[in-house]
Design a protein that fits this description.
Helix content is 62%, strand content 5%. The protein is mostly helical. Strand 1 and strand 2 form a beta hairpin. The chain has a two-stranded antiparallel sheet with strand order 1-2. Strands 3-4 form a two-stranded parallel sheet. Strands 5-6 form a two-stranded antiparallel sheet. Helix 4 crosses helix 5. It has three domains: 91 residues, Orthogonal Bundle (Fumarase C, Chain B, domain 1); 191 residues, Fumarase/aspartase (Central domain) (Fumarase C, Chain A, domain 2, Up-down Bundle), CATH 1.20.200.10; 97 residues, Fumarase/aspartase (C-terminal domain) (Ribonucleotide Reductase Protein R1, domain 1), CATH 1.10.40.30. The chain is elongated and about 100 Å long. The chain binds arginine.
């Protein structure tokens, strides 16, 4: 049991208590960020005259050694230490002796862990931004390739009106654009440095918090020391944004599963992204899409969990907040994995364009256009709706579509119909005439694709910054 705080205790900690309290088994993944924060702290201490330059250099060398040895596996982070902060400090003292004991001057583990988590989350959010960008690039390609790929659009999972595959995918594009924006907003809002807040009330040392903040690429220091050590809003915001991303991925997965089913056969998932059955040799299952859909629950759970943990905590730091880690790590791993695999899955799937088109032709997806035809010939919409309703009923009885009706049959219900009805309700017309911005018509789609192209180009600069 290696702990930082034995002085005022007369007894050893009970082993079970020690284990219950320790966080090393999971916070060890913060080692890089803990060392990065410590280096900035030490530089600031030297600049402020609290440490000598020699002491600073010795400590930094020691910390770099710990980092290198941990990365190479020479040094193992074991459960002998209470948490990652104890591990780094104890190792530093082992390496460089008494100077190492000065590292923690003007700092508490409360502001230290607040910093470590922020540094870690910031790095991960930047990676998530990159993954969403790659996903959007794939969607953009699918959109560009499928402006004329007709398919039925659904409401209530009933065929409604014809759309295109580009248009359908474009809906998800909009969702992921918003998701990207949310991550960007979080990064902006969270980017203030809590180090220097001490345990809760700052310190009497003349710390230069602006300097620490600039060394670590923050916009500046946080402005209230009590808030600094007890703020986990950015984690909540992240998990909320992640929940929305997962909700989008899950809806998309659900559609992929439906489209990939034997009944629909709109798409076929690549063998590399499908799995088989141990008993049924014919099976090729969409497990990746199902797992993405399934894992959405655990990301929601992490949001729910931290919200519940935080709701009753008095200011400032309380140990409850250690519970932020496992769920954050799990959600980050899950979301990154899901976006990456989902992107691979949709970039390799094949489209059965013929099946999509066939499905769009039947199911009366052109009934609205048929009514609109009558409206254009002076029939009030409500009457037109009734007329087409009768025609649809007639077609259902005869098991044909509106396109198959003869002009006589049309006339038996309304004499307004003329020869041009067939063109007016053809799949091509139904889709290609819908050209108000946001609609599936090719002119409208081209405009949106152009906008998206510019958007992605701007993002590319941002991602590579
Ligand atoms: N492992 C702790 C956490 O994750 C570090 C901070 C401990 N501070 C304290 N006063 N016990 O929150």
């Amino acid at each position: 049991m290696a702990q930082l705080w034995g002085g005022r205790f007369t007894k050893e900690t009970e082993q079970k208590v020690y284990n219950f309290n320790a966080s090393i088994s999971f916070d060890k993944r913060l080692y890089k960020h803990d060392i990065e924060g410590s280096k900035a702290h030490v530089k600031m201490l030297a600049k402020s005259g609290i440490l000598t330059e020699t002491e600073r250099d010795e400590i930094i060398k020691g910390l770099d050694g710990i980092l290198a040895d941990t990365e190479s596996g020479v040094l193992e982070i074991t459960s002998e230490y209470e948490d990652i902060h104890s591990f780094v400090e104890a190792n530093l003292i082992d390496r460089i002796g008494d100077t190492g004991k000065k590292l923690h001057t003007g700092r508490s583990r409360n502001d230290q862990v607040a910093l470590d988590m922020k540094l870690y989350v910031r790095d991960e959010l930047i990676q998530v931004k990159g993954l969403i960008f790659s996903l959007m690039q794939e969607l953009h390609i699918l959109m560009k390739e499928n402006i004329h790929t007709y398919m039925p659009g659904f409401t209530h999972l009933q065929k409604a009106q014809p759309v295109t595959f580009a248009h359908h995918v474009g809906a998800y594009m909009e969702m992921f654009k918003r998701d990207y924006g949310r991550i960007k907003d979080i990064l902006e809002r969270m980017n203030y440095c809590p180090l220097g807040a001490g345990a809760l009330a700052g310190t009497t040392y003349p710390l230069d918090r602006e300097y620490t903040a600039s060394l670590l690429n923050f916009y500046g220091p946080t402005l209230n020391s009590m808030d600094s050590v007890s703020d986990r809003d950015y984690i909540i915001e992240m998990l909320s944004a992640f929940s929305t991303i997962m909700m989008h991925l899950s809806r998309f997965s659900e559609e992929i599963i439906i489209w990939n089913s034997n009944e629909y056969q709109f798409i076929e998932l690549d063998d590399a992204y499908s799995t088989g059955s141990s008993i049924m040799p014919q099976k090729k299952n969409p497990d990746i899409a199902e797992l993405v859909r399934g894992k959405t629950g655990r990301v929601y759970a992490s949001l729910n969990s931290i919200l519940t943990t935080m709701k009753g905590i008095p200011l400032a730091y309380n140990k409850d907040m250690q519970e932020d880690k496992e769920l954050t790590f799990d959600a980050i791993d899950t979301v990154k994995n899901c976006i990456e695999l989902f992107t691979g899955m949709i970039s390799t799937m094949k489209l059965n364009k013929e099946n999509m088109k066939k499905s769009a032709v039947n199911g009366f997806t052109n009934a609205t256009d048929c009514a609109d035809y009558l409206v254009n010939h002076g029939v009030p919409f409500r009457d037109a709706h009734g007329i087409v309703g009768q025609l649809v009923l007639y077609c259902i009885e005869k098991n044909i579509s509106l396109d198959d009706l003869s002009l006589e049959e049309y006339h038996s219900v309304s004499t307004v119909f003329e020869d041009d009805i067939y063109d007016a309700i053809s799949l091509k017309t139904c889709v290609e005439k819908r050209n108000t911005i946001g609609a599936p018509g090719p002119d409208a789609m081209e405009k949106v694709i152009d906008i998206n192209e510019k958007y992605l180009n701007e993002l590319r600069g941002e991602i590579n910054e």
